[in-house]
């Protein structure tokens, strides 16, 4: 008779792991117990089975949503006269563990929802150990019902039986509930200024009909409210754009299954797998139809997610629509709404009805967004189903000190390094408004509480005016911590290095703008990196950022300036409002505009020259259109010259001059766009080749918001691989500024290890 103590670490809470261990023990005839702890799941097995046999059986039969990072096994003294195997009460502590992410409704629950003979028939909050809310309902650890917002809903006899029966799929499923004992649905009408009463399905039937009639409904989901309406109704789509003040910005669509998506989009195997997975992110699919052109801002992609709640699934089925619009319910500059009182107060005039439930959303979590490149899912917004992101450090990455990183200014996230883990928060927005700053501070406090982090260093951006940097300095002074300032683009590259366990590379960070080490505005940077040693070796030749910050939203200013300097007559003829723009040229010669090397701004300029727009109503609107019009079959590129005087520099003016010549000879803009994309990719390859010759490095890392451009990323990776480089780009951490906090952590780790 032997007794073994197992500690399971990884995603082992909120995924039915304890019931799974219970069933394994019963099948193998073992006695003992299993319980949640802050570190993972602890189990003790006693019997005549070896620890190796137990381990092999567990690994071979893992629950589908669980994964194991580590199994610690110890032989201990047997317990005499022990009978049976039990799930015991969890330890009450807040030690670091893997927080379970929210899961979309599973196929078993979906079938039961529509099965008239099943007790969960039309249970709009149906869930089990394989699906349902997790991260958005957790108040503290460990993950037990009394530590979630489900604690207010006391089990009825039937739910208690399911929850307590080891062979039941809802055994110890913390979010399980039914129509008798669970949350309730409520429907508020703005027109009638009152609630409309009815049973859950009656309210869903009513809402479905109203959507077909051309109304907008705010629906409370797992991580916040969505605005739901009919994408086939041009009038209602126009109204939604106008009321949200987001003209041209693509709206997310929701579908019941992948077969519907295939009718309108090209879908590869990996996209299908991710779409059908429990994580249910919004995936940017390449469209093969011009339908929904207004919904997606005339871009080449459609953002579609699977109906991850029974409520959305039922409304889709009831309306008979292939898709419904399901976009975040928020106003410009304000985070996604999570509270029904706030929804009723703030959404009047934007929607017509508010459908909500009385289960509290503990933490706001937007829908995750990403796209597939080279069989990798590139995450651009971490949220429901992915957050919090957690990476276990390798032995070569480990340092003892704990680190807090506060990220950047846009697409903000915060990151923690605790022991051998790096944890990154959900998307926290752009820190331009009080509302987003309050959300950011709340999420920071929440993460520090959940992980009980005592940190030694605070990492932040080099830009002293960022709110996150100001906060870092305030916290450092208050708690006597050390601050590590990490340059923006260096952090981009280090985020990708972290997830790929690299400590040396050629790194390219292309984005909009970020304060450089020399005080200028960077955004086309190439680095040689060896552990904590970073040397900038490439950038575009500096140009004046004409218009300053205004040029970000109104890139026509910068485009006209470049065009005027290259070909005055062309500029005056090509731009209609030349009187206004000529004033910009005069101002450029009088005012001391900052020097800039940003590739993001150049994508804006080329987009303006190719009539993709003159203003960015939202971030990267013009570059997104520029990508959409490109001829994917074109392989030509523009000539460029590399200057080697100090760092490798390329003068963008020479490339823009060739683009203007193509415009003057009336070349198709799809051809020009493609050649420009190819040129940027070619620049990366040629610079990397020169650096390989000089420094004997063949690993290339790509990061930064410009590489959210799927065409550019695919071209660059393919061309580099053709030249036999080993190429890495962000997949686990966001490739845009959402990954900055992770990069700040890893840069600090390298400093601690090598200084």
Automatic annotation (TrEMBL):
It catalyses: an acyl phosphate + H2O = a carboxylate + phosphate + H(+); C-terminal L-cysteinyl-[HypE protein] + carbamoyl phosphate + ATP + H2O = C-terminal S-carboxamide-L-cysteinyl-[HypE protein] + AMP + phosphate + diphosphate + H(+). Residues 201-385 form the YrdC-like domain. Residues 3-89 form the Acylphosphatase-like domain. GO terms for biological process: protein maturation. Gene3D superfamilies: 3.30.110.120, 3.30.420.360, 3.30.420.40, 3.90.870.50. One of its GO terms (molecular function) is carboxyl- or carbamoyltransferase activity. Keywords: Hydrolase, Ligase, Metal-binding, Zinc, Zinc-finger. Pathway: Protein modification; [NiFe] hydrogenase maturation. It comes from the Bacteria. Its EC number is 6.2.-.-. Pfam families: Acylphosphatase, HypF_C, HypF_C_2, Sua5_yciO_yrdC, zf-HYPF. The keyword Secreted does not apply. Belongs to the carbamoyltransferase HypF family. This is Carbamoyltransferase. It comes from Caldicellulosiruptor obsidiansis (strain ATCC BAA-2073 / JCM 16842 / OB47).
